């Protein structure tokens, strides 16, 4: 397995994915502020949460990049379209399993069943994170497919 490629390219791909998600949120394509969601697991302060969440997302992205690199090594090939397919699987699991389960463990996120007494500051994402805007699933899918394609291209070059 290409350990140096994983370490460098995983970081680059994750930083690009995170920057793209933040940009999409800032220009109004989605209301999902994933660094805020992740950081709010740790701190109540929204400004600190965004910083902490950015670094948590980088760490999580490195973990996923390790999975991609291991899969490429097992297949004895890496290219953009295999990486893009991995990105489709990755985003599919994220939008249908991970995000909908998040309210169950997130101390500052409401659940679908939260009533008016809830003191949660974040709304639940719902299936496909649709509660954060109709374009959220598409934006999230596009950036994850690009993430996988980039890893496939960059790890292929080594």
Automatic annotation (TrEMBL):
This is Membrane protein YagU involved in acid resistance. The chain crosses the membrane at residues 54-75, 82-102, 132-155. Keywords: Membrane, Transmembrane, Transmembrane helix.
């Amino acid at each position: 397995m290409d350990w140096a490629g994983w370490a460098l390219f995983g970081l680059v791909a994750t930083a690009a994915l995170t920057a793209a998600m933040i940009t999409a949120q800032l220009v109004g394509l989605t209301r999902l502020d994933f660094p805020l969601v992740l950081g709010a697991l740790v701190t109540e302060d929204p400004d600190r949460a965004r910083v902490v969440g950015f670094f948590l997302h980088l760490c999580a992205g490195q973990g996923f990049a390790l999975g991609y690199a291991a899969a490429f090594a097992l297949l004895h090939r890496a290219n953009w379209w295999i990486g893009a397919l991995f990105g489709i699987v990755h985003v599919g699991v994220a939008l249908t399993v991970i995000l909908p389960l998040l309210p169950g463990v997130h101390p500052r996120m409401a659940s679908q069943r939260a009533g008016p007494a809830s003191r949660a500051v974040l709304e639940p994402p719902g299936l496909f994170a649709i509660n954060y805007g109709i374009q959220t699933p598409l934006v999230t899918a596009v950036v994850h497919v690009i993430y996988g394609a980039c890893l496939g291209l960059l790890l292929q070059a080594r």
